[in-house]
Amino acid sequence: LRRRSPSEITKTPFLSLYYDLVRALAAIIVVFHHYSQHLVKAESGRVVFPHLGQEAVIAFFVLSGFVISWVVDTRTQSIGNFLVKRLARFYSVMVPAIAILGMCYLVTMQLEPKLYQYQGDGEHFWLKALFTMGFLNFNSMVYQIKLPGGSPFWSLTYEFWYYIVFALWVFSKRWWFPILGTTSIFMFLGWDAFLLWPVWLTGVAIYWLSKQITLKPAQAQVLFGLSLGIMVSLYTSGWRYSVLAIDTYVPGLENLRYAKAAPYFLCLGLMMGLNFLAAKNWSHSLTL
Question: What is the pTM (predicted TM-score) of this model?
Protein backbone atom coordinates (compact mmCIF):
# COMPACT_ATOMS: atom_id res chain seq x y z
CA LEU A 1 0.00 0.00 0.00
CA ARG A 2 1.14 3.56 -0.66
CA ARG A 3 -0.35 7.01 -0.23
CA ARG A 4 -1.61 8.77 -3.35
CA SER A 5 -1.58 12.51 -3.89
CA PRO A 6 -4.98 14.19 -4.34
CA SER A 7 -4.31 14.85 -8.02
CA GLU A 8 -4.07 11.10 -8.65
CA ILE A 9 -7.48 10.33 -7.23
CA THR A 10 -9.83 11.35 -10.00
CA LYS A 11 -7.79 12.57 -12.96
CA THR A 12 -8.06 9.48 -15.10
CA PRO A 13 -10.37 9.42 -18.14
CA PHE A 14 -11.81 6.00 -17.38
CA LEU A 15 -12.62 6.93 -13.79
CA SER A 16 -14.45 10.10 -14.85
CA LEU A 17 -16.28 8.09 -17.50
CA TYR A 18 -17.30 5.48 -14.96
CA TYR A 19 -18.60 8.04 -12.47
CA ASP A 20 -20.55 9.77 -15.26
CA LEU A 21 -21.99 6.38 -16.26
CA VAL A 22 -23.10 5.74 -12.67
CA ARG A 23 -24.75 9.17 -12.51
CA ALA A 24 -26.51 8.62 -15.82
CA LEU A 25 -27.78 5.15 -14.87
CA ALA A 26 -28.95 6.40 -11.47
CA ALA A 27 -30.81 9.29 -13.08
CA ILE A 28 -32.48 6.99 -15.63
CA ILE A 29 -33.49 4.57 -12.87
CA VAL A 30 -35.06 7.40 -10.85
CA VAL A 31 -37.06 8.54 -13.89
CA PHE A 32 -38.36 5.04 -14.65
CA HIS A 33 -39.04 4.41 -10.96
CA HIS A 34 -41.29 7.45 -10.68
CA TYR A 35 -42.89 6.73 -14.02
CA SER A 36 -43.77 3.21 -12.88
CA GLN A 37 -44.64 3.90 -9.24
CA HIS A 38 -46.62 7.08 -9.81
CA LEU A 39 -47.91 7.42 -13.36
CA VAL A 40 -48.49 3.81 -14.39
CA LYS A 41 -49.61 2.76 -10.92
CA ALA A 42 -52.07 5.66 -10.69
CA GLU A 43 -53.57 4.68 -14.04
CA SER A 44 -53.58 0.88 -13.87
CA GLY A 45 -52.78 -0.08 -10.29
CA ARG A 46 -49.65 -1.99 -11.30
CA VAL A 47 -45.95 -1.25 -11.70
CA VAL A 48 -43.75 -1.96 -14.72
CA PHE A 49 -40.29 -1.23 -13.29
CA PRO A 50 -38.46 -2.59 -10.22
CA HIS A 51 -38.59 -0.56 -7.02
CA LEU A 52 -35.06 0.83 -7.41
CA GLY A 53 -35.47 4.59 -7.15
CA GLN A 54 -34.18 4.98 -3.61
CA GLU A 55 -31.23 2.70 -4.31
CA ALA A 56 -30.33 5.06 -7.16
CA VAL A 57 -30.51 8.01 -4.75
CA ILE A 58 -28.05 6.20 -2.49
CA ALA A 59 -25.61 6.10 -5.41
CA PHE A 60 -26.00 9.88 -5.73
CA PHE A 61 -25.39 10.32 -2.00
CA VAL A 62 -22.18 8.27 -2.00
CA LEU A 63 -20.87 9.99 -5.13
CA SER A 64 -21.79 13.35 -3.63
CA GLY A 65 -19.75 12.74 -0.48
CA PHE A 66 -16.82 11.41 -2.51
CA VAL A 67 -16.72 14.24 -5.02
CA ILE A 68 -17.19 17.10 -2.53
CA SER A 69 -14.34 15.70 -0.43
CA TRP A 70 -12.12 15.65 -3.51
CA VAL A 71 -13.11 19.22 -4.46
CA VAL A 72 -12.39 20.63 -1.01
CA ASP A 73 -9.16 18.64 -0.65
CA THR A 74 -7.66 19.61 -4.02
CA ARG A 75 -8.87 23.18 -4.50
CA THR A 76 -8.30 26.11 -2.19
CA GLN A 77 -11.71 27.39 -1.20
CA SER A 78 -13.34 29.80 1.21
CA ILE A 79 -16.70 29.11 2.80
CA GLY A 80 -18.24 31.78 0.57
CA ASN A 81 -16.85 30.23 -2.59
CA PHE A 82 -17.96 26.78 -1.45
CA LEU A 83 -21.55 27.91 -0.85
CA VAL A 84 -21.83 29.91 -4.07
CA LYS A 85 -20.70 26.97 -6.19
CA ARG A 86 -22.98 24.51 -4.40
CA LEU A 87 -26.01 26.80 -4.71
CA ALA A 88 -25.26 27.40 -8.38
CA ARG A 89 -25.28 23.66 -9.02
CA PHE A 90 -28.49 23.11 -7.06
CA TYR A 91 -30.41 25.98 -8.61
CA SER A 92 -29.31 25.13 -12.14
CA VAL A 93 -31.36 21.95 -11.64
CA MET A 94 -34.12 23.13 -9.31
CA VAL A 95 -35.31 26.25 -11.13
CA PRO A 96 -36.00 24.57 -14.50
CA ALA A 97 -37.37 21.49 -12.72
CA ILE A 98 -39.90 23.58 -10.78
CA ALA A 99 -40.92 25.40 -13.96
CA ILE A 100 -41.40 22.10 -15.80
CA LEU A 101 -43.44 20.65 -12.90
CA GLY A 102 -45.72 23.68 -12.98
CA MET A 103 -46.31 23.43 -16.73
CA CYS A 104 -46.87 19.66 -16.57
CA TYR A 105 -49.40 20.13 -13.79
CA LEU A 106 -51.38 22.72 -15.75
CA VAL A 107 -51.51 20.50 -18.84
CA THR A 108 -52.08 17.18 -17.09
CA MET A 109 -54.91 18.44 -14.89
CA GLN A 110 -56.82 19.21 -18.06
CA LEU A 111 -56.27 15.71 -19.43
CA GLU A 112 -56.00 13.22 -16.54
CA PRO A 113 -56.43 14.82 -13.08
CA LYS A 114 -56.29 11.51 -11.20
CA LEU A 115 -52.57 11.19 -11.97
CA TYR A 116 -52.00 13.77 -9.23
CA GLN A 117 -54.21 12.05 -6.68
CA TYR A 118 -51.24 11.24 -4.44
CA GLN A 119 -48.62 13.52 -5.97
CA GLY A 120 -49.41 16.92 -4.53
CA ASP A 121 -51.43 19.75 -5.99
CA GLY A 122 -50.96 23.20 -7.38
CA GLU A 123 -52.47 25.07 -4.44
CA HIS A 124 -50.08 27.80 -3.20
CA PHE A 125 -47.65 26.72 -5.92
CA TRP A 126 -45.33 29.70 -5.59
CA LEU A 127 -45.15 29.41 -1.81
CA LYS A 128 -44.29 25.71 -2.13
CA ALA A 129 -41.67 26.61 -4.74
CA LEU A 130 -40.05 29.11 -2.35
CA PHE A 131 -39.90 26.52 0.44
CA THR A 132 -38.42 24.01 -1.98
CA MET A 133 -35.76 26.44 -3.22
CA GLY A 134 -34.95 27.30 0.39
CA PHE A 135 -34.46 23.58 1.17
CA LEU A 136 -37.18 23.81 3.82
CA ASN A 137 -39.68 21.45 2.21
CA PHE A 138 -38.86 18.29 4.20
CA ASN A 139 -38.29 18.73 7.92
CA SER A 140 -39.37 17.61 11.38
CA MET A 141 -41.99 20.34 11.76
CA VAL A 142 -43.69 20.02 8.39
CA TYR A 143 -43.05 16.59 6.94
CA GLN A 144 -43.31 17.69 3.34
CA ILE A 145 -44.29 20.77 1.41
CA LYS A 146 -44.74 19.04 -1.89
CA LEU A 147 -45.01 20.58 -5.30
CA PRO A 148 -47.23 18.62 -7.71
CA GLY A 149 -45.04 15.71 -8.75
CA GLY A 150 -42.21 17.14 -6.63
CA SER A 151 -41.61 14.37 -4.10
CA PRO A 152 -38.12 13.59 -5.54
CA PHE A 153 -36.93 16.94 -4.15
CA TRP A 154 -36.46 15.23 -0.77
CA SER A 155 -33.05 13.94 -1.83
CA LEU A 156 -31.84 17.36 -3.01
CA THR A 157 -32.96 18.90 0.28
CA TYR A 158 -31.10 16.31 2.32
CA GLU A 159 -28.01 16.58 0.13
CA PHE A 160 -27.92 20.37 0.50
CA TRP A 161 -27.98 20.17 4.28
CA TYR A 162 -25.33 17.44 4.24
CA TYR A 163 -23.14 19.91 2.34
CA ILE A 164 -23.80 22.55 4.98
CA VAL A 165 -22.86 20.17 7.81
CA PHE A 166 -19.73 19.18 5.87
CA ALA A 167 -18.80 22.86 5.44
CA LEU A 168 -19.27 23.50 9.16
CA TRP A 169 -16.70 20.84 10.04
CA VAL A 170 -14.26 21.78 7.27
CA PHE A 171 -14.27 25.57 7.47
CA SER A 172 -15.17 26.42 11.06
CA LYS A 173 -12.32 27.61 13.29
CA ARG A 174 -14.21 27.18 16.56
CA TRP A 175 -14.59 23.61 17.83
CA TRP A 176 -18.05 24.16 19.29
CA PHE A 177 -19.62 25.74 16.21
CA PRO A 178 -19.88 22.61 14.00
CA ILE A 179 -21.27 20.62 16.94
CA LEU A 180 -23.93 23.25 17.60
CA GLY A 181 -24.67 23.67 13.89
CA THR A 182 -24.92 19.96 13.18
CA THR A 183 -27.21 19.39 16.15
CA SER A 184 -29.47 22.28 15.15
CA ILE A 185 -29.68 21.18 11.51
CA PHE A 186 -30.68 17.62 12.30
CA MET A 187 -33.14 18.69 14.98
CA PHE A 188 -34.77 20.75 12.24
CA LEU A 189 -34.59 18.07 9.55
CA GLY A 190 -35.61 15.13 11.72
CA TRP A 191 -34.68 11.48 12.05
CA ASP A 192 -34.99 10.55 8.39
CA ALA A 193 -32.24 12.91 7.29
CA PHE A 194 -30.06 12.07 10.30
CA LEU A 195 -30.24 8.30 9.84
CA LEU A 196 -29.39 8.60 6.13
CA TRP A 197 -26.47 10.96 6.79
CA PRO A 198 -23.98 8.08 7.40
CA VAL A 199 -24.72 6.87 3.86
CA TRP A 200 -23.54 10.23 2.49
CA LEU A 201 -20.54 10.12 4.85
CA THR A 202 -19.59 6.79 3.29
CA GLY A 203 -18.54 8.72 0.18
CA VAL A 204 -16.39 11.03 2.31
CA ALA A 205 -14.74 8.07 4.05
CA ILE A 206 -14.07 6.27 0.77
CA TYR A 207 -12.39 9.35 -0.67
CA TRP A 208 -9.96 9.60 2.25
CA LEU A 209 -9.38 5.86 2.12
CA SER A 210 -8.60 6.11 -1.59
CA LYS A 211 -5.76 8.50 -0.75
CA GLN A 212 -4.16 5.95 1.53
CA ILE A 213 -4.18 2.72 -0.44
CA THR A 214 -3.39 1.30 -3.82
CA LEU A 215 -4.75 -1.99 -5.09
CA LYS A 216 -3.15 -4.06 -7.82
CA PRO A 217 -5.29 -4.29 -10.98
CA ALA A 218 -6.27 -7.89 -10.21
CA GLN A 219 -7.26 -6.96 -6.66
CA ALA A 220 -9.27 -4.00 -7.93
CA GLN A 221 -11.10 -6.19 -10.44
CA VAL A 222 -12.02 -8.71 -7.74
CA LEU A 223 -13.26 -5.97 -5.42
CA PHE A 224 -15.18 -4.35 -8.28
CA GLY A 225 -17.01 -7.57 -9.14
CA LEU A 226 -17.51 -8.60 -5.53
CA SER A 227 -19.03 -5.26 -4.57
CA LEU A 228 -21.42 -5.38 -7.54
CA GLY A 229 -22.43 -8.92 -6.64
CA ILE A 230 -23.11 -8.03 -3.02
CA MET A 231 -25.21 -5.02 -4.10
CA VAL A 232 -27.34 -7.24 -6.31
CA SER A 233 -27.64 -9.79 -3.51
CA LEU A 234 -28.68 -7.14 -1.01
CA TYR A 235 -31.42 -5.92 -3.32
CA THR A 236 -32.77 -9.37 -4.21
CA SER A 237 -32.59 -10.65 -0.62
CA GLY A 238 -35.53 -8.53 0.52
CA TRP A 239 -33.58 -7.68 3.69
CA ARG A 240 -34.51 -4.03 3.19
CA TYR A 241 -37.89 -4.92 4.69
CA SER A 242 -36.73 -7.43 7.30
CA VAL A 243 -33.19 -8.05 8.56
CA LEU A 244 -31.88 -4.59 7.59
CA ALA A 245 -34.96 -2.57 8.53
CA ILE A 246 -34.98 -0.49 11.72
CA ASP A 247 -38.65 -1.09 12.43
CA THR A 248 -37.98 -4.83 12.58
CA TYR A 249 -36.23 -4.24 15.89
CA VAL A 250 -37.72 -0.94 17.08
CA PRO A 251 -41.53 -0.80 16.77
CA GLY A 252 -43.51 2.41 16.61
CA LEU A 253 -41.47 4.20 13.95
CA GLU A 254 -44.38 5.12 11.70
CA ASN A 255 -43.04 8.65 11.26
CA LEU A 256 -39.93 7.37 9.54
CA ARG A 257 -40.10 7.01 5.79
CA TYR A 258 -36.89 6.36 3.88
CA ALA A 259 -34.83 5.87 7.04
CA LYS A 260 -36.78 2.75 8.01
CA ALA A 261 -34.32 1.00 5.72
CA ALA A 262 -31.27 3.00 6.91
CA PRO A 263 -29.18 -0.14 7.77
CA TYR A 264 -29.89 -1.55 4.31
CA PHE A 265 -28.98 1.73 2.63
CA LEU A 266 -25.79 1.98 4.69
CA CYS A 267 -24.71 -1.53 3.63
CA LEU A 268 -25.57 -0.69 0.04
CA GLY A 269 -23.71 2.61 0.27
CA LEU A 270 -20.64 0.89 1.68
CA MET A 271 -20.61 -1.55 -1.23
CA MET A 272 -21.04 1.33 -3.68
CA GLY A 273 -18.16 3.14 -2.04
CA LEU A 274 -15.91 0.08 -2.30
CA ASN A 275 -16.97 -0.26 -5.92
CA PHE A 276 -15.87 3.35 -6.56
CA LEU A 277 -12.59 2.64 -4.77
CA ALA A 278 -12.02 -0.43 -6.94
CA ALA A 279 -12.86 1.53 -10.08
CA LYS A 280 -10.37 4.22 -9.12
CA ASN A 281 -7.56 1.72 -8.64
CA TRP A 282 -8.47 -0.29 -11.73
CA SER A 283 -8.57 2.85 -13.88
CA HIS A 284 -4.88 3.54 -13.31
CA SER A 285 -4.01 0.42 -15.30
CA LEU A 286 -6.20 1.45 -18.25
CA THR A 287 -5.23 3.76 -21.08
CA LEU A 288 -7.23 5.41 -23.83
Answer: 0.90
